[in-house]
Amino acid sequence: MMLSSIRRLVAIIAIACISVLSQAQPLTAEAGSNKPYKILTSGKQITVKSSKNIKSIMVWTASGHRIVEQKEINEPSFSFTVNISEKVFFLMIQFEGSKPYTEKIGI
């Protein structure tokens, strides 16, 4: 009698866990996977490649110093070299007719 009660309890718990897990949201590939660009780094060389034409790019350090500000690029790719010794930067990229995207990058 006791063994059958334990089996029923385990079965109820298993069914409850399965029903909770089946209601969970699906995992996404990456939080920022819907951005229309990729950032490629190679040493101090940074390249931004996009499926759209880039309107402008601005890069600044964590302390707030701008190191790159380029407007009217109108190309799907933009490369630049970082000439300072900091390791963390912030990038803002703007495309024609869309919102600006910002991202923290490290080299």
Structural commentary:
With 107 residues, the chain is of the alpha+beta class. The model has no long low-confidence stretch (mean pLDDT 84). It has one domain: Immunoglobulin-like (Sandwich). The protein has one helix and five strands, in the order αβββββ. Strands 1, 2, 3, 4 and 5 form a five-stranded antiparallel beta sheet that branches.
Describe the secondary-structure layout.
Blueprint: H1 2-22, E1 37-42, E2 45-61, E3 66-81, E4 88-95, E5 101-106
Antiparallel strand pairs: 1-2, 2-3, 2-4, 4-5
Number of strands: 5
Basic shape: elongated
Uncertain residue segments: none
Structural class, by secondary structure, is alpha+beta
How much is the average pLDDT? 84
Q: Report the major sheet.
A: 5 strands, antiparallel
Which fold name fills CATH's third level, the topology? Immunoglobulin-like
Number of domains: 1
Précis, in short:
This protein is of the alpha+beta class and 107 residues long. It is 20% helix and 50% strand.
